[in-house]
Structures are given as structure tokens and as C-alpha cells.
# Entry
Amino acid sequence: MRGLARWTVLAAAAIAAVAVAAAAMADDMTVSSGASDPGMTQERQIREIRQELKLLEQRVDQLENENDRLRKANAELQKNTQKLQTSTTEQISALQSKVAESPSPEDFLSAMDRFLGRYRVTLVGGAAGSFIYDRNSNINTFAFDMEPIILWQLSDKLLFEGTIEANLPAGGSADYQLPVADFQYFLNDYVELVMGIFDQPFGDWYEDQSPFWVNRFVTAPLPYNVNPLIPPTEIGVQLRGGFQWGQMGQVADYTVWSGNGPGYSNSSCTNNTPPSPLPTCTSTAFVGDTLVGVNNIKLNTHTPSFGGRFRIYPLPADSDWGRLELGVSTYDGKWANGLWMTSWGVDFNYFRDNLQTRGEWIESYRQMPAGLGADNRQGWYVQAGYFLTGLTLPFVPSAANEYIDKLEPLIRYSGINQRAAVLANIITTPEIGFTGSPALYAPHAREVALGLDYWLAPSIVWQNEFDLELPEAGGFYSDTGQPVGAYPNDRAFVSQFAVGF
Amino acid sequence: MKRKLISGFAGAAVALALAACAGGVAHAANDATPAQQKRQMFLRGAELWPIYCNTCHNARPGGEFSPTEWNMILMHMRTQANLPPQDAKAILEYLKASR
# Structure
């Protein structure tokens, strides 16, 4: 079609040219019939016509090319328009269906995060209500304790942790403590800096095992009970971190710290009520003084204390041998000018399937002023628990087996050895981790605890504990000079409902 | 003597930490796509979650807290239990994804 048009145009142009040439020739013949060489003139005219034809041919080619380009552009434009229409239709359809359906939980949370901000405060911790019966002290009472932990994430590397401990012991008003308030800053993946008041990184008890719902028993083992061998908290700085050294699960971790050091409740200082963290009068130290309680924060007038803890997990995660933790801890600090309190301890924790065991040995050495002799102490505990999960007893209704499934029987043996106790320090007001028995203050206290936990959920437990206080005779009361005879063996029962939130 | 022992203990701990840094870098080398890496993290977290948590207390399921809360709690637990970084990240991935 295009060729035909081309030839039509060319033919028309040729006819026009021939007509023009013929007319010109006629004119020439008419005007200059007497020209010298008519053949030459004709040739020249033919050349001109050919030239004109060539120009016209070029022009036609140019127009055809332009036409082709425009046609292609038009086709492309049509294709794009079609694509755009399809895409727009799909997008509208997707939006319409999204608007029609309710948002997914992820979308909702994402929107909430955008609205509330990425870094926020959250509240975790625990609460516990307990009933305490102690035969020797004739105590029958309820108590309540609460320990909220405030976590405030300030950036991807910085977290603030604050713990408030509130006790409502029988016969007393509420008692508040601030056992933890610190900033935790991750310097890199393997080193973290902690600054403030922190749980003592010694053994597993203070940092990891003391929360109500975490401790399998209601009470603390004797080395961490009323007459602890190690201060519960410290104010200072820590460097800590963990790393994998072998296969998955074979890890180790370290903690090194420096703080203000230990303080003792000097019973003869009458201008303040012991245990006061900051004695306001000069007092005489006694062998067997109890360490200052939760807030072991005294003014540091001596060398700062320091210590370290190292743990290793030798078994890989995918082995069938269970999980074993081995730990070693140290604590060194001056409790008075020139007088050191040094301690070390070793601990283990092993669990496999339904069985969990843990234990610890602690040695503590306290230098005393001249003439009083050393105040050395030892403490230990070993405990085991077994979840009855999966146990189906024959001849027992299935409904009963459902309850049995949630039980965890426990046993713990703990003890303390020290030269003396301070008679004035003995209190029987129940607090958490304390049954009220004076036998706990004996220089050679021993305790067997039998427990039965009923787990309603992973962090909700009803705990029952029966304690046999079996102190051995020996030692003396350092504030009265009397020797300590045999304590009557004591029995106590403690029941607690604990929730971790 | 005791102080020397303690200094040696602290020094050994720091040296081990530094050695672990090198190990951590080696572990990080992974040619998998981001989606595959996420899946690997999830599986690693699923395996480690009961082991690490049960060392101290019963393992709590992912549904108990929101993802933002888990971020804070895992930061807290990294401090509390000195969790290795890659394992803490894997457990966090698992807890958030298993809600």
C-alpha cells in the first residue's frame, strides 16, 4: 500500500515534470526558435527534472520515516496506557480489599508502635501472698510482698532497670526497698557496662534465683537467708558479657565489678535502729554481726570493693546430656579501715528433662579488730526438684492425673557455720525468705526444706514448704559472751501464691 | 596472693570475651538471603529458648508479651543471664514470631 502510494506520487511528479518540460520546450521553441542548440537545452532540462525527481524522492523517504516513527510511538503509547490502566485497577482493587478487611495483629502492633514510639517503659516483676506458721515462735500470720521491675528502653543499647521491693510483714507497716536501680549500656556485643545499684553478682541466688516465682521454695537457702554471707546488693559499676566458645549452647559468661563494699549491722550502736545502712555512731564490732540487708549501701571511706563471677556451660544444646552450669565467684572489700571481708564461692546447676538440681558452697573471711579473732563463715545448700509432668499414675482417675501433672516435689538441705551469733540481732518478724524461726540465727544452723509446688502457669505457682530447723549446738553469743547450747528443733510451714508478671 | 588470683581471673574473663569476639565474627558469615537468615534465627531461637530460660525459671511463651515488650525483656535478660548476643537475638526472633 505504502509502495503504491509512493509510485503514485512519483508518477504524478514525473507527469508534472514532463508537462512542465513540454511547456518549457514549447516556449523555447516559440520564443527562441532560432536558438543555437536545441538538443543541449533539452538535455539540461532533463537533468533538472531528474534532479527534482531525486529531491522529491528524498522528501518522500523522509516523510515515510517520520510516519513510521509516529506510528511506533503511538503503538508504544497505547501499550503504556493499557498497562497503567491495568495497574491502577489492581491497586484500587487491593486497597479496596485491604480497607474491607480488619487489620492483622502485626499491622495493629506496628501502628501502635508508630503511634506510641519505639522505646517505651514496661513493667515486669512479681507479687506473692503467703501464710507462715512457725511452731517455736508461735507465729501464724499472713504476709504480702511485691517486687515490680520497671524497664525503660532508652535506645537500642541503653536500658534502665529499677526494682522496688515492698513488704507488708505481720505486725508492721509496709517496708520499701530499692534493691536495683541501674543503667545497662551495651558497649558492644560482648561487653556491657552496668552503673548504679545492682544485685550482687555472686552465685546464682541474688541475680537469678531470688524472685518469688523463680525460687522453687518460698524461703531462701540459709547462706542467703537472715544471716547472709554475701551482701545482697552493691552500688558501683560492672562490666559483663557472654559468648559462645564451642557448639551451640556451649557458652561462658563473666562479670567483673567494683562497688562501695560491705556493711555490717553493729548491734551495740544504739543511736540508730539496726539494720541501718549508715550507722550514725561508733560501735563495737562483734563476731557474727549480720550484713546490712537489701540495700548494702554504705558511705565508702575505704578502698572500693571488687569482685568477679565466671560461669561456663560445657554441654552442647543439642546433646541428650541435659544442661550443666558451673560457676565461681569472688567478693573482696573493706568493711572498716584496714579490715577486709573476702569471700569466694562455687556453684552448679544441672537440669535434664523434668529434673533440676542446684547447689553452692561459700566461704567468707572477715578481719576483725585486734583481740576479737577472725569472723570466718561457711555456707552451703543443695536442692533438687522433679516435675511430675507426663507422669500418669495407674488406678488414678484422669482428672486427678491432670492435677498431678502440674506438681513439682522438692527437697533442699542448707547450712551455715560461724564462730558466733549476735543475740541482739535475732528477730522473729516474718519477712520474705524467712520463716520466723530463731534457729536460723544459730552459729551452726541447719535446715531441711521439703516443698511441693503446683504450677498453674509457667509464672504462676502455689508453693508449699515444710521446714525442719535442726541447728547444731556450739559457738557463742558474741554480744553477751554466753555459749550457745542446743536450740530446740523447730518446724515451720509456709504456703505462698506467687505470680510473675 | 588473693588479689593476684582475682586479677588473673578478671584478665582471663576479658581475654575470653575478646577471643569470643573473633568467634562471633566468624559465626556472622552467612550467604543466606535475609528471609533464610530470619528462618535460621527462628529455628535456633526455638531450640535455645527452653534451654536458656529453664536454666533459671520456667520458659514463658511468646504470647505473654508484645514484640516491643520482648525487646525490653530480652535486653534485661541479656544482662541478667549474660546471654551471648547471637543467641539472645535468635530467642527474641523466636518469641516475637511465635506469638
